[in-house]
Recover the amino acids of this structure.
């Protein structure tokens, strides 16, 4: 015997069918009120379970998926929250309202707040300022380079270290070209980097010291190139292993001086840092790609530097302060105004690097669903085995090419939030966050998505739908 608690939506739909269907199988002309005899007769009874094929199918599919996930998680060391939905219906849930360390899933919150506060078309602008206008292409005195927070500038030498060769970046040479296009041929003074747009805090104080090595995140600055890495100032277009984190604004102007001289714009003075004159003359500027592209790169490649600089820009535009704290305050307010339940949300940064961050699977799922609905983020979620931070994961597995998700990975954190397109034609939305020292690292989340690929087992919807009419 078929026994199942039918949802209120199904009951309402069934009631509607009972009300609108005429006893004779006819149809009502809504304008004349007359009833005409239908030429066909339905073969499926009105109260048949076939009228709700999805509900019928899930009767077997949901318990089987739950059992599969439970069996998998029983072998995972640590704590895990999970939620899986199909068309808004919860298929599986475990501790989904409890908060966990989300790692880079936090970037979903940063992206949605940035789109709300900054806008999809906003750009970071690098400005060139002097004490007086140049004459005949010559700047007599110093040239100030005023940082606008652009996180994507890189030289071709640094591009060689990218894990994803298709990663979006902005060619640093084009910054120099903007001066050339403005007619500048020579600078008799110094090249001075000004990164006063944001505060001078290079690292979030609660971050582990290990983040300051290994390229996890740049020394945060409104004026940064090559993620603040040394080794490229004299040979910016050559690959090098001689790199470590350095003084971001100084590295910027040192590299720019090299590029300018190589392009025929002579700089007589040295490269150093300082503050541009308040009433200085702007002689040229360089605009970044639109914010929508910046945020897409941030999500797809889980770019920590981009996330942190975007957060400071959020703080500047919303609170008048280019700080991490101001950005967090503004982000939380934006998420609430957008209708998200941020109960239990703890934000220590915008990238998710801080292990003091906390987020529930419920919120992670809500955020990634919202991201998927924004046209600006149409290509922002990595694809299993194909792109972004999933390019080298889920390769030659059931999840290859079928899972689109934001990743989150720290030493003791493995998270995924996104969508699984199953071979049977279902699209499951899900959030999975594991906290613990499981030796399988990223394989924990990838193993979870492989379980989703079996959904739904049993009869296909085409076998459960109403029968053809006679």
């Amino acid at each position: 015997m078929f026994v199942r608690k039918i949802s209120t939506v199904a009951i309402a739909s069934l009631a509607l069918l009972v009300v609108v269907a005429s006893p004779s199988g006819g149809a009502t002309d809504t304008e004349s009120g007359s009833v005409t005899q239908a030429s066909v007769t339905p073969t499926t009874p009105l109260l048949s379970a076939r009228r709700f094929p999805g509900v019928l199918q899930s009767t077997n599919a949901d318990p089987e998926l739950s059992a599969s996930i439970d069996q998998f998680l029983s072998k995972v060391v640590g704590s895990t929250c999970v939620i899986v939905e199909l068309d808004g219906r919860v298929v599986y849930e475990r501790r989904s309202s409890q908060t966990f360390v989300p790692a880079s899933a936090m970037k979903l919150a940063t992206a949605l707040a940035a789109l709300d506060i900054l806008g999809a078309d906003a750009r970071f602008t690098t400005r060139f300022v002097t004490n007086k206008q140049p004459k005949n292409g010559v700047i007599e005195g110093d040239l100030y380079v005023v940082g606008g927070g652009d996180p994507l500038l890189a030289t071709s030498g640094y591009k060689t270290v990218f894990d994803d060769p298709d990663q979006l970046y902005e060619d640093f040479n084009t910054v120099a070209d903007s001066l050339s296009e403005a007619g500048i041929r020579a600078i008799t003074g110094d090249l001075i980097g000004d990164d006063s747009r944001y505060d001078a805090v290079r690292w979030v104080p609660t971050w582990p010291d290990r983040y300051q090595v290994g390229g996890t995140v740049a020394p945060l600055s409104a004026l940064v190139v090559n993620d603040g890495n040394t080794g490229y100032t004299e040979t910016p277009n050559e690959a090098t292993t001689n790199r470590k984190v350095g003084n971001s604004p100084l590295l910027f102007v040192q590299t720019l001086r090299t590029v300018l001289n190589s392009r025929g714009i002579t700089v007589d003075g040295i490269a150093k840092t300082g503050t541009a004159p308040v009433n200085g003359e702007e002689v040229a500027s360089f605009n970044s790609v639109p914010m929508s592209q910046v945020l897409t790169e941030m999500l797809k490649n889980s770019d920590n530097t981009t996330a942190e600089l975007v957060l400071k820009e959020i703080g500047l535009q919303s609170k008048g302060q280019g700080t991490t704290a101001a950005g967090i305050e503004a982000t939380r307010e934006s998420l609430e105004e957008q209708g998200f339940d941020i109960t239990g949300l703890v934000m220590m940064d915008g990238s998710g690097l801080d292990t003091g961050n906390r987020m529930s699977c419920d919120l992670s799922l809500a955020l990634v669903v919202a991201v998927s609905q924004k046209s600006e983020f149409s290509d922002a979620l990595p694809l299993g085995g194909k792109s972004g931070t999933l390019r080298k994961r889920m390769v030659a597995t059931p999840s290859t090419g079928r899972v689109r998700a934001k990743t989150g990975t720290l030493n003791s954190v493995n998270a995924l939030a996104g969508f699984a397109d199953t071979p049977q034609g279902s699209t499951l939305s899900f959030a999975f966050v594991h906290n613990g020292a499981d030796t399988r690292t990223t394989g924990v989340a990838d193993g979870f998505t492989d379980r989703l690929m079996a959904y739904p087992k049993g009869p296909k919807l085409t076998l459960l739908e109403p029968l053809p009419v006679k």
The chain has three domains: 8-56, 58-116+300-308+316-452, 123-289. The longest strand covers residues 413-421. Residues 53-73 form the longest helix (21 residues). The chain is about 30% helix and 15% strand.
